[in-house]
Amino acid sequence: MSARPRIVLALGGGVARGWAHIGVIRTLVSAGYAPDVVCGTSIGAVVGGLYVADKLDELEIWARSLTSRSIFGLLDFSFGGSGLFGGHRLAKLLEAQVGGACFDTLNRPFAAVATELETGREVWLRDGALIDALRASYALPGVFAPVKYDGRWLVDGALVNPCPTSLARSYGGHVVIAVSLHTDVIGAPDDLTPSDDAPLLAALHAEAAKANGNNWIRPDRLILQHLFGPGRDGPALSTVMLNALNILLDRVSRARLAGDPPDVLIAPRIAPIGLLEFNRAAETIELGAAATRDALPYIRHALQKLT
Fold first, then answer.
1. 0.90 cut: is pTM over it?
2. What are phi and psi of 13, to 5 degrees?
3. Are 260 and 165 a contacting pair, CB within 8 Å?
4. Relative to the CA of 253, which of 11, 33, 45, 159 has its CA 20 to 30 Å away?
5. How far apart are CA 96 and CA 74, in angstroms?
6. C-alpha to C-alpha distances, 169 to 6, 162, 165, 204, 262, nearest whole angstrom
């Protein structure tokens, strides 16, 4: 155990906005507040998991290299499966980094949140293979197939706990620091422009056209047109799905944080970043770093008062 008080870090879900967690962790470590325990939901589990596996540098390099074309290259359509995408290409990338790492081989305690598909129960993943826990935690229903873990079908943990303060609290740390990626998304302040995934969706659509030419009868081409193309009598299907996800994560985050608030909440001003804008990692990482720098006095005060 470290000489200073024990810090537990809870990293929330937020799809592409989760790159902000890289900036959060970098800033905490450089300020002398490296977390003793890390918990995460969805993309928060991915970033937190690679951090405790000593792979944060590799993750950041990869994140900063992403373009609309490389994102499209990760979309392996799964026809007849339980999700639109098989997720195998992404899983292979993660597995190449974490290898056969298990929870008991990590450099500090780590836990991920998932949701049991059949019952809707919140599941805390704290043992076994790290890659299996990460895949289960980010398995957004309808997008990625559920993951079978200890005999149960699991999906994205953000459905029930977008910012896992309760899980972090269970580790008995002196100070729980939580990172929520939804505090300014719904009803963004006047000085923030709400995110718009339309440019990236259009880029993905264009990449699909390049890859498939004019062959409109290919199933994957038809799916892309249906998802990303303009709606016949309203917004595109992808726009409806993303906005609905935004609302869900915002409302559930508010409720969970109100019931079990952290000692310090880091809330990056993340509204300008779309849920699918993985190609804006540099901006997103800096937003996380800036919010953490602003929170450092509160962390210092909490450590003094709560120990």
1. no
2. -85, 160
3. yes
4. 33
5. 15
6. 11, 15, 6, 40, 8
Give the mean pLDDT of 106-124.
96
Q: What are phi and psi of 156, to 5 degrees?
A: -50, 130
Between β-strands 122-125 and 110-116, what pairing exists: parallel, antiparallel or unpaired? antiparallel
**2 band by pLDDT with thresholds 50, 70 and 90:** very low
Q: Give the residue from 39, 25, 15 showing the smallest Cα distance to 195.
A: 15
Q: How large is the angle between the packed helices 88-98 and 130-137, nearest 10 degrees?
A: 140
Region of 148 on the Ramachandran plot (φ > 0 left; ψ -120 to 50 alpha; else beta): beta
- Return the active site residues: 42, 156
Contact 281, 20 (CB under 8 A): no
Q: Following DSSP, what letter does each residue of the chain receive, concatenated?
A: --SSPPEEEEE---GGGGGHHHHHHHHHHHTT---SEEEEETHHHHHHHHHHTT-HHHHHHHHHH--HHHHHHT--B-TTSSEEE--HHHHHHHHHHHTT-BGGGSSS-EEEEEEETTT--EEEE-SSBHHHHHHHHT--TEEE--EEETTEEEEEGGGT-SS-HHHHHTTT-SEEEEE-S-TTTTT--TTSPPP--HHHHHHHHHHHHHHHTT-TTSHHHHHHHHHHSPPSSSS-HHHHHHHHHHHHHHHHHHHHHHHS--SEEE----TTS-TT-GGGHHHHHHHHHHHHHHHHHHHHHHHHH--
Please state, in angstroms and rounded to a whole number, the distance separating the CA atoms of residues 307 and 14. Answer: 31
Is 89 a residue whose pLDDT tops 90? no
Looking at residue 129, what is its pLDDT?
94
